[in-house]
Amino acid sequence: MSSFQAPKGTFDWLPPRSERALAVREALSAPARRAGYGYIETPTFEDTALFARGVGESTDIVTKEMYTFEDKGGRSITLRPEMTAGTLRAVLQHGLHNAGQLPVKLWYSGSNFRYERAQKGRYRHFSQVGVEALGAEDPALDAEVIMLALDGYAALGLTGVELLLNTLGCKECRPAYRAALQEFLRGLDLDEATRARVELNPLRVLDDKRPEVRAQLENAPLVTDHLCEACKAYHEEVRALLSGEGVAYTDDPRLVRGLDYYTRTTFEFVHGGLGAQSAVGGGGRYDGLSEMIGGPPLPGVGWAIGVDRTVLAMEAEGLAEDDGERAAGRVSVYGVPLGEDARRVMFGLVTGLRRAGVPADMAFGGRGVKGAMKGADRSGARFAVILGERDLAAGEAQLKDLASGEQTAVPLAGLVTTLKEKLSI
Ligand code: AMP
């Protein structure tokens, strides 16, 4: 063991479990790709000011959780705590919203960094898949992004994901609601930090998880009672579209999110098998974000889903039990060369098999026949190809079926074809 450990709050994805993370990224992005979303990759770090303005000065993320440092050129740099701000920065920088049809539809996948209190399901380095649709304000688009997430979860076989739905109003109706909420909150028995939050960002107080705060929030005014007509109609349409597709959801008028930029539709995907960190994904509409980071008015809607937590949710549902098989089936063919010349020829054979689409490995490190055969067994391969000096001279190899133990001589020239046939590749 080395004396180094992964930093606190981080962990390593190791095979075969790491396959689950890949499968989650693939399944969550596939529905978006089918809906015309293009792949975007932005830097892992951005100017600190982008997040301060884009995520919000009063959020936990910006005040407590960012990995911020000064680079050698004296710039303040921050490792991204989320990917929407960077995505929108890239759209504005490259004028994607002027270049073609709206909405601009993008999906991403990558690492995020938050200095959080580490616990199961909450890490300092974690991974998200997300979608953003920019440049259209249309309830069908809100419903579309929600469907994409639900289809992704369904493709993974998850049945325990619940959709919580809310609206946060818009710049017309939110100020009056904010004021009403503030008035209510000022009358409560709250600690100093929370009282400060009441003044800065009262909606976020609704998100407080502490029981002593929760208990006092029971009669808090609800945003749904303060919506303007346009927001009401918009929200009804989103709900109708989802219901029309048979989607079950729970209206949650207290659902606010940890980031400042949301307007109108907000939603969260939660899973009962995860304990305290139950959110497997979340998102919503953020019509003000572009202007907050110095761009033109550009409405947007999107979500980010936690890859790590989605894997935990699958494990909680018993959906990831085939790791053993997957590990065992790593390759189909395992080469056992006996001697220098055989190794050279085996190297060519294995290369040829792989190019022909046959997963293949071979014994390395000059192990004797016993060690090499053990390697063949451990690899989970169905066939071993054994090549000794005498085989080489005869232009053949011994093909051993590792399940039955049956062994036959096969001409080297026909080996790839024979194996493809036997493996139905
Ligand atoms: P957010 O960007 O905070 O809306 O988070 C979106 C999703 O990312 C959440 O629903 C989680 O699944 C995941 N997530 C957020 N923070 C963490 C974290 N610290 N560790 C693991 N997953 C996270």
**Helical/strand content category:** alpha+beta
Question: Could you state the CATH homologous superfamily of the largest domain?
Answer: Bira Bifunctional Protein, Domain 2
Q: Helix proportion of residues, in percent?
A: 40-55%
CATH topology category name of the largest domain: BirA Bifunctional Protein, domain 2
Question: How many domains comprise the coordinates?
Answer: 2
Please give the alpha-carbon distance between the first and last residues: 40 Å
What number is the mean pLDDT?
Answer: 94
What best-fitting shape do the alpha-carbon axes yield? elongated
What is the number of E strands?
16
Strand content: 15-25%
Could you write a compact summary of the structure shown?
With 425 residues, the protein is α+β, with helices and mostly antiparallel strands. The chain is built from 18 helices and 16 strands.
Question: Could you walk me through the main structural features you see in this protein, from its secondary elements to its overall organization?
Answer:
By secondary structure, the chain is of the alpha+beta class. It has 18 helices and 16 strands. The strands form three sheets. The protein has an eight-stranded mixed β-sheet, sandwiched between helices. The protein has a five-stranded mixed β-sheet with strand order 13-12-14-15-16, sandwiched between helices. It has a three-stranded antiparallel β-sheet with strand order 2-4-3. The radius of gyration is 28 Å and the shape is elongated. It binds adenosine monophosphate. Adenosine monophosphate is lined by residues 82, 114, 116, 121-123, 126, 128, 257-258, 279-282, 304, 306, 308-309. GO terms for molecular function: ATP binding; histidine-tRNA ligase activity. Its main location: cytoplasm. It is found in: Cytoplasm. Its EC number is 6.1.1.21.
